[in-house]
Design goal:
The chain is α/β, with parallel strands linked by helices and 354 residues long. It contains eleven helices and twelve strands. The chain binds adenosine-5'-triphosphate and magnesium ion (MG).
């Protein structure tokens, strides 16, 4: 796992105001996105030439909601199912089970026409901006393309929106007429962001949006995403394995292990005192992970490697690696359940761990 040694510098008026109490208690507002019992299994290669057909459970029993203007980060090791969750939410994959309600409407049950009408509201920004951009089109043409496809505005209106959006991401003026190869990696990612946001989406799935960028450029792009979120009231589902980035952008964080959420908590609560043993291992490994009072999160080391999702352990999937595992953990899978402090944790012993 890669993690930055230090937190990002705060954008003035952004990072530290993110936790200021809003007028309305946010979790009581109607969710923009409500995901319930989401699961995805993929067909997997046979075990040997004549072995039985197998299924790989990439995501199991994932539930969460997201309100307008909020960022939920999804973290966990490579292969734990983060992108699969994002792709399910964007309807790029069909779930094996569960429901996804967007503004109360079940997108998984709907027809393709219904989904197309919603397409504009849900956008994706992913890691590889170079492959996301068309090398033959100028930046302003690419940003205009979505508006044309969705039939938004006349020519003049589209040109105005494109210019405004490019200005907002710091690619105004002469950049507009450039081709992708004439931009740096950070500028390409800004162009990708402009192309997604010009459609005025309500929810953006950011899948490792800065993982391919230099650390200094990462901070700029992350700060840009935050500024645009404040300006347009966007909700982000922010997928990342980089906890320093997550700490800077998230309101809440979901920690995934082997396809399941094992802890879902407010950012500050999680970074100050992760409750699930896996979250403790993950967050304790970040040098900068300290509570607001400067207390260091006690690192917890897990034994062995993550198991294959093709052959997950019975009971709690973490039990073979967990120093606190008991007989119950070996037999019975813990459900994600709310603790007294508001976070949810999937551990039989969450309240009594040393
Ligand atoms: N189309 C597919 N067919 C079969 N298996 C898949 C498919 N897509 C993903 N998987 C498997 O599902 C699991 C979860 O993959 P996913 O891409 O969601 O992980 P991730 O957490 O995003 O990992 P990373 O941090 O490396 O991007 C992995 O075991 C992966 O091999
Ligand atoms: Mg991924």
């Amino acid at each position: 796992m890669t993690a930055l040694a230090n937190d990002f510098p705060a954008t003035p008026g952004a990072a530290d105001t993110a936790t200021d109490a809003p007028v309305e208690e946010p979790r009581q507002r109607r969710p923009l996105l409500k995901v319930d019992g989401l699961a995805k299994a993929f067909p997997a290669p046979r075990d040997g030439l004549f072995g039985p057909r197998r299924r790989l459970t990439a995501v199991a029993d994932v539930s969460f909601d997201l309100i307008a203007g909020e960022t939920l980060a999804v973290v966990g090791e490579s292969g734990c199912g983060k992108s699969t969750v994002g792709n399910l939410v964007l309807n790029l994959l069909r779930p094996s089970a569960g429901s996804i309600l967007f503004e109360g409407e079940d997108l998984t049950a709907g027809s393709d026409a219904r989904w197309r009408a919603r397409r504009r509201d849900l956008q994706l920004i992913f890691q590889d901006s170079r492959s996301a951009l068309d090398p033959r089109l100028r930046i302003d043409q690419q940003v205009a393309e979505g508006l044309e496809i969705h039939g938004i505005g006349d020519r003049a209106e589209r040109a105005r929106r494109v210019a405004e959006m490019l200005e907002a991401v710091g690619l105004g003026g002469e950049f507009a007429a450039r081709y992708p190869h004439e931009l740096s990696g950070g500028q390409q990612q800004r162009a990708v962001i402009a192309r997604a946001l010009v459609l005025e989406p309500k929810l953006v799935v950011c899948d490792e949006p800065v993982a391919a960028l230099d650390v200094s450029v990462q901070a700029q792009v992350v700060n840009l995403l935050r500024d645009l979120q404040g300006r347009f009231g966007l909700a982000y589902l922010f997928i990342s394995h980089d906890l320093s980035v997550v700490r800077h952008v998230a309101d809440r964080v979901a920690v995934m292990y082997l396809g399941r959420f094992v802890e879902l908590a407010d950012r500050d609560a999680l970074f100050a005192a992760p409750a699930h043993p896996y979250a403790r291992a993950l967050i304790g490994a970040v040098p900068a992970a300290r509570s607001r009072h400067g207390r260091r999160v006690q690192p917890l080391s897990l034994e062995g490697e993550p198991p294959s999702p093709l052959d997950p352990p019975a009971g709690c999937a973490l039990h073979p690696r967990c120093p606190f595992a008991t007989d119950r953990c070996r037999k019975e899978r813990p459900a994600l359940r709310p603790l007294a402090d508001g976070r949810s944790v999937a551990c039989h012993h969450a309240e009594t761990l040393p």
